[in-house]
Predict the structure.
Amino acid sequence: MWKVSIIRERCTDCGECLDACPGEVYELRAGRIEVAHPDECHGCHTCEAVCPQEACSIEEE
Ligand code: SF4
Ligand code: SF4
């Protein structure tokens, strides 16, 4: 299992993580990027790599 979180203080809601994620983990809701389906994460770390703010956090649990 992977724990997906967004560090809100850093996130600018740019959507890069949503666009890059091969699953459906992130969603845009009312202008904010949210972790909608964390169970779909398979730990590829792509969102961490593309986030310009280093605001994506993927941890194994
Ligand atoms: S890529 Fe980073 S800054 Fe952009 S919406 Fe995702 S978490 Fe926020
Ligand atoms: S680690 Fe991969 S599968 Fe998980 S949220 Fe990030 S881009 Fe999506």
